[in-house]
Amino acid sequence: MTADFGALVIETARRLSSAGPITARPTSLFRGHPGVAMLFGELGRADERWLPVAHRHLAAAVAALDTAPTAGLYEGPAAVLAAAQTCAAGTGRYRGLRERLTAYAEDAQAHRLAQPGGYDVVNGLTGLGRVLLDSGAEVGPTLDALVRLAVLETRPGADAGMAHGVAGVLAFLALTAEHGRLVPGQLDAMHHLAGWLGDVAGADAAGPYFPAWAGETAVPAKSAWCYGTPGVAVALHRAGTVLGEPAWQRLAVESLRAVARRPEAEWHLDGPTVCHGYAGLLHALHVVAAATGDPELQAAADRVALVVADAADDTAEFLFRHHESGSPVDSAGLVEGAAGVACVLLPFAGHAVRGPSSWDRVLLFS
């Protein structure tokens, strides 16, 4: 590998540190201040000089809460809570803010639990449950609801992906089990969901893959975090690790190896960012490679990291541009912006963090 990943991360951070107020979706993890604050919170664990920048973006997000829309984990108070948790990083900072936003998230989750549906990571029960888990809040009712939904949502045509589908539910059930939070039926639900994902998987000459929706097995889905193999593989591997199911772990590893074996054009990715782009695939490869020590996955991660690095554009406001409907746009955020690209490149830059929190928990990767 020849790219200077450290220099790319620092240059992205330098450009983001001088960014003015974000006026479009300022409280979103997609393009707003919370995601930018999370990058600087991560950087601040190794170098406290970045913490004032994290604080500035967090404060801007808080100031925008009264006028910004609210939608699950990814937009509004819960997104700001996720950013505050990362910026606190186990230090006790922002305790009052985190308590107020946790109370909001608890109320929002209670409201969702009283209504049918809405279980996804971005807008629903699973995403809010993840941020509540880090707050030490009660997640039992959320788990009960997801256990009940596990069978109902594994139907023909169901979304198999991480962002809005079955893989996100499996990832959350596995993460809570890993934290010692279990409710009756949870382990059976995990077996059911993992088995269903195995049943809907397709295969081609490169190996297994996951469709975006059950029944669409003619070709692999987009190889992104939100839909397709990368997100599903991370969920399956974690569940297999937690429950001691090596077949799930093997399927996860083989499906990611198969992505790497296919021509890049068949990945159908849009630019360098996390949600639909190369950074989401890169992080999935890195997470599973780090967990398994698999040399083929590590080699694939190194190769995709170079693809991400090559997307750096000195004329871009934040060095990396998000691609939307085929057009590049300057975006600062975590999921659809430069901050997320920099977060994904941190391990390749040799960045070591302190503390238990990790930015990728909002992707249900940790």
Order of helices and strands: HHHHHHHHHEEHHHHEEH
- End-to-end distance: 27 Å
Number of helices: 14
Q: Bin the helical content.
A: 40-55%
| Largest beta-sheet characterization | 2 strands, antiparallel
Query: What does the average pLDDT come to?
Result: 93
Percentage beta strand:
under 5%
Task: Output the keywords.
366 residues; mainly alpha; two-stranded antiparallel ribbon; 14 helices; 53% helix; 3% strand
Which helices and strands occur, and which strands form pairs?
Layout: H1 5-17, H2 33-46, H3 51-63, H4 77-88, H5 95-113, H6 125-135, H7 140-152, H8 166-178, H9 186-200, E1 202-204, E2 207-209, H10 229-243, H11 246-261, H12 278-292, H13 295-310, E3 322-324, E4 327-329, H14 338-345
Antiparallel strand pairs: 1-2, 3-4
Helix pairs in contact: 1-14, 2-3, 2-4, 2-14, 3-4, 4-5, 4-6, 5-6, 6-8, 7-9, 8-9, 8-10, 9-10, 10-11, 10-12, 12-13, 12-14
Could you walk me through the main structural features you see in this protein, from its secondary elements to its overall organization?
It contains 14 helices and 4 strands. With 366 residues, the chain is mostly helical. A hairpin with a 2-residue loop joins strand 3 (322-324) and strand 4. Helix 4 crosses helix 5. It is globular. The protein starts with a helix and ends in a 21-residue tail after the last helix. The model has no long low-confidence stretch (mean pLDDT 93).
Short description:
By secondary structure, this protein is mainly α. It is built from 14 helices and four strands.
